[in-house]
Design goal:
11% strand; six-stranded mixed sheet; 12 helices; 47% helix; Endonuclease, Chain A; alpha/beta; 434 Repressor (Amino-terminal Domain)
Length: 295
């Protein structure tokens, strides 16, 4: 009996447009599917590449780069023998190892934020609650400059503004993530950079809220207490079903990435509650317009 060679399911070419992190996640997902189809345990796969089950987990989740030797050894273990298939997979893994667009800003970025930039670009949906500032993906250049100029040299501040502006390009990609932002009404009245800067920022929010992949809601003062009081957070969801949501909590000198089921469930519930309590998008747009006119 002749065994049919194992064939690798193709990866949508649009995935690569979302950056190396998205491609790494897709490659890792393929590795997991190949392993499971062959009935190989993570421990067995880890031993086969002179590693551990934890290394296999990192590879399959796209949390680490790929070595040609490991990829080829795993493909052999999983029964992928056709030269063209093996070459194609190794090529994808090499492309997934390439540095992200933010590489040129490495001198400004702490490692924990580089991780977030990759995940942000790879996400299918970004849900965020902000109680103090306009989220980075929605900031104008002047607002961004006002936020970050404290404590930074002028030249460095300009590059940080450039970095944040570059991040915002994902909102215009045809296959980019959907952004759903809920802002506390306090954000509309905190004069970051002065009245002119804040007015232009609010006007920008009005315009960007009209994009088909962007939803902006305002949580009004008269809501009173709410489930997210005193916090700001972002939830990332990915198209790849094997990847759990991630909750990102930024601190002054570090960040937390939460993916435990109980943590995710709590933050989903909080996000859902504030979205229900907040004004609907059209009414929120009216609040933004009214706040801008007052400045």
């Amino acid at each position: 009996m002749v065994t049919e060679p194992v064939r690798i399911r193709g990866i949508d070419s649009r995935v690569a447009e979302r950056g190396p992190t998205a491609l790494r996640i897709a490659v890792g997902g393929q590795l997991r599917k190949l392993r499971e189809a062959k009935g190989v345990t993570p421990v067995e796969a880890g031993e086969h590449i002179r590693g551990s089950h934890a290394k296999i987990s990192r590879l399959e989740l796209g949390r680490t780069g790929y070595k040609d030797r490991d990829i080829l050894d795993l493909l052999t273990l999983y029964g992928v023998t056709e030269p063209d298939q093996r070459e194609m997979f190794v090529d994808l893994a090499r492309r997934a190892n390439q540095p992200g667009w933010w590489h040129q800003y490495n001198d400004l970025l702490p490692p924990w934020f580089e991780t977030y930039l990759g995940l942000e670009g790879a996400a299918q949906t970004i849900r965020t609650f902000e109680g103090q500032l306009v989220p980075g993906l929605l900031q104008t250049e002047d607002y961004t400059h006002a936020v970050i100029e404290v404590g930074h040299q002028n030249a460095e501040a300009s590059r940080r503004v450039e970095l944040r502006t570059k991040r915002q390009e994902i909102l215009d990609l045809t296959n980019g993530p959907r952004l759903w932002a809920v802002l506390d009404e306090a954000v509309l009245h905190r004069p970051i950079g002065g009245k002119r800067v804040l007015r232009e920022q609010l006007e920008h929010l009005v315009e960007v809220s009209k994009k088909p992949r962007v939803t902006i809601q305002v949580l009004p003062y008269d809501t009173g207490g709410h489930a997210a009081a005193g916090s700001s957070f972002t939830m990332l969801r990915f198209a790849e079903m094997e990847l759990p949501d991630i909750v990102y909590l930024e601190q002054l000198t570090s960040a937390l990435y939460l993916d435990r089921k109980e943590d995710l469930q709590l933050y989903r519930e909080v996000m859902d509650k504030v979205a229900v309590q907040a004004c609907q998008p059209e009414q929120s747009r009216e609040l933004l317009i009214a706040a801008a006119k007052e400045l």
